[in-house]
Design a protein that fits this description.
This protein is of the alpha/beta class. It contains eleven helices and 18 strands.
Length: 429
């Protein structure tokens, strides 16, 4: 079963907490602090696996969680780092944030391995907080929190040439004849619901990759039927080959079909319709009578710069000429393959989700008030009673511009600053 879309939950590992302990050795009754650092949490890493061509595994397993770092120990023992979790995906997989649908990473081209969520840093043990006035700190830093995210995985096949056309016009038959791909073929609509890739080998030794894009219907660009699922696979192709039923075996007008498909492509993504195109007028083995429908197609499209080739995917007539023309055209296209740029950085976005802070002056109580989710979170794991902990918190206020905002409001030494339930006097560092 081919699967080209999945939604999964990913979570990096939490950092291990720093440890609080003191040397207790014979003849050293009051030894110094020796609490070790916590280990780093495991990262969530996506990696391309050339042996995969589907996202079917993600239908079974939807949660991917890296292990947490271990807490530090006595005698300066460093906690073990959490194990990274490597998630293997096929080349061409685009990772998107589920909420915003923005691209996090495109596992294509040179991007073979990407750290999407970083594990939390391990907290520092109390051995780091010794000062001249604080010889026995009872404070250690907690490990950083893990990061978590729902993401969407979309597989966009990577091919040089994409076969497009209405259902039952012979795309699968052509692909099976010219490549190693073996799609199931039968005489009914929507036989191909999955894209198939095939490598076309030519006598010259230089080949190309061809993709059979599932049959389109009118309205596909608006999501009718399986429109968006089909059209997604055309985005990376360098050129398009329109397969039409020149014999009109089902009563369809091949010229109208080509215009209809181009309309759907343009509505979905305008630049796709502007890519080089060839027309393969198929089923010429079924043309009987004096009128030649292939000439009508040529008269309509060749003046527009779109070459038309008469072929029979069943007998092989005209197929070689089409393939060599495609290969020659591909050699003239110097564009780099389509790679989607990052639109969403999880680390930055998750940091910002904690919310902004506010700095204000409360005239009634003659206090300066600092509030915000990140402030409250920082207070929750900082020991302000220790000199080192208080210095750590002051550095946090300075690095986040909060001290500058207090100065802009006119704060002076000795004024009171309130952070939730905590009040302290302000003094310049």
């Amino acid at each position: 079963m081919f699967a080209d879309r999945a939604k999964i939950f990913i979570k990096s590992g939490k950092g291990g907490d720093g440890h609080v302990s003191f040397r207790r050795e014979l003849y050293v009754p009051n030894g110094g602090p020796d609490g070790g650092d916590g280990g780093k949490g495991g990262d969530i890493i996506f990696q391309v696996d050339d042996g995969l061509n589907t996202l079917i595994d993600f239908r079974q397993t939807r949660k991917y969680i890296a292990t947490a770092g271990q807490p530090g120990g006595k005698k300066r023992c460093h906690g073990a780092n959490g194990k990274d979790l490597v998630i293997k995906v096929p080349e061409g997989t685009v990772i998107k944030d589920f909420e915003t649908n923005k691209v996090i990473a495109d596992m294509s081209g040179e991007c073979r391995r990407e750290v999407v969520l970083k594990g939390g840093k391990g907290g520092l043990g109390n051995m780091h907080y010794v000062t001249s006035t604080m010889q026995a700190p009872k404070y250690a830093q907690p490990g950083q929190d893990s990061q978590e995210l729902w993401v969407t995985l979309e597989l966009k096949v990577i091919a040089d040439a994409g076969l497009v056309g209405f259902p039952n016009v012979g795309k699968s038959t052509l692909l099976s004849r010219v490549s190693n791909a073996r799609p199931k073929i039968a005489n009914y609509h929507f036989t191909t619901l999955d894209p198939h890739l095939g490598v076309v080998d030519l006598d010259t030794g230089a080949g190309f990759v061809m993709a059979d894009i599932p049959g389109l219907i009118e309205g596909a660009s608006q999501g009718i039927g399986l429109g968006h699922d089909f059209l997604r696979h055309i985005e990376r192709t360098k050129m398009l080959i329109h397969i039409v039923d020149a014999a009109s075996t089902e009563g369809r007008d091949p010229i109208e079909d080509i215009y209809a498909i181009n309309r759907e492509l343009e509505n979905y993504q305008k630049d796709i319709a502007l890519r080089p195109q060839f027309i393969a007028a198929n089923k010429i083995d079924c043309i009987f009578g004096e009128d030649d429908p292939v000439e009508k197609i040529r008269a309509e499209f060749e003046p527009k710069g779109i070459p038309v080739f008469a072929i029979s995917a069943v007998t092989g007539e005209g197929v070689k000429e089409l393939l060599y023309a495609v290969k020659n055209r591909l050699s003239e296209i110097k564009e780099n393959p389509v790679v989607f740029e990052q639109e969403y950085d999880p680390e930055t976005a998750l940091y910002q989700q904690e919310g902004p802070h506010t700095v204000s002056y409360d005239a009634e109580n003659d206090e300066y008030v600092v509030e915000g989710p990140r402030i409250e979170k920082m207070l929750g794991y900082t020991n302000l009673e220790s000199e080192k902990g208080f210095a750590f918190f002051q550095r946090f206020l300075r690095e986040n511009g909060i001290l500058d905002e207090l100065k802009a409001l006119g704060i002076k030494e000795g004024d009171t600053v309130r952070l939730y339930g905590l009040s302290f006097d302000y003094y310049e560092e």
